């Protein structure tokens, strides 16, 4: 076989292989960056949930402390707010439990 034919067939194949390698490498880099962003987003969600739980706990503790003060004369708003905070806390816990079970199976 003539070496020029072999060379003519090999150059386009090498260029094509290089292009595919370069594109694949670029895709892998983007995927790695996206994975890092996803991990940061997950951590942010965890921190936000912990903050919400802390705020609810603080609100409940404050409401219960105010209710124990004899001269405070708590109105119905305080009792309703406390009930609402407890309801939301339990709904959140139930939702996260459900999500955890679905993630396992």
Question: Main traits of this protein?
Answer:
single chain; 105 residues; mainly alpha; 90% helix; rod-shaped
What does this structure look like?
With 105 residues, the chain is mostly helical. The chain has one domain. 90% of the residues lie in helices and 0% in strands. It has 2 helices and no strands. Helix 1 (3-68) packs antiparallel against helix 2. The longest helix has 66 residues, at 3-68. The protein is rod-shaped. The model has no long low-confidence stretch (mean pLDDT 87).
Reconstruct the topology from this structure.
Blueprint (H helix, E strand, L loop, with lengths): L2 H66 L7 H29 L1
Helix pairs in contact: 1-2
C-alpha Rg (nearest Å): 30 Å
Percentage of residues in helical conformation = over 70%
Parts with pLDDT < 50 across at least 5 consecutive residues: none
Number of H/I helices: 2
Task: Estimate the strand proportion.
Answer: under 5%
Q: Overall pLDDT, averaged?
A: 87
Helix-and-strand structural type: mainly alpha
Oligomeric status: single chain
How many beta strands in the DSSP annotation? Answer: 0
Rough outline: rod-shaped
Order of helices and strands: HH
Number of domains: 1
- Note the main sheet: none
* Head-to-tail CA distance between termini: 60 Å
């Amino acid at each position: 076989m003539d070496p020029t034919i072999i060379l003519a067939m090999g150059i386009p194949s090498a260029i094509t292989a290089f292009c595919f390698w370069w594109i694949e490498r670029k895709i892998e880099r983007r995927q790695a960056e996206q994975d890092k962003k996803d991990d940061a987003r997950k951590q942010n969600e965890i921190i936000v949930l912990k903050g919400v739980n802390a705020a609810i706990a603080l609100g409940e503790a404050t409401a219960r402390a105010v209710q124990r003060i004899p001269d405070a004369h708590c109105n119905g708003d305080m009792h309703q707010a406390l009930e609402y905070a407890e309801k939301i806390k339990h709904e959140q816990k139930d939702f996260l439990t459900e999500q955890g079970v679905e993630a396992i199976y």
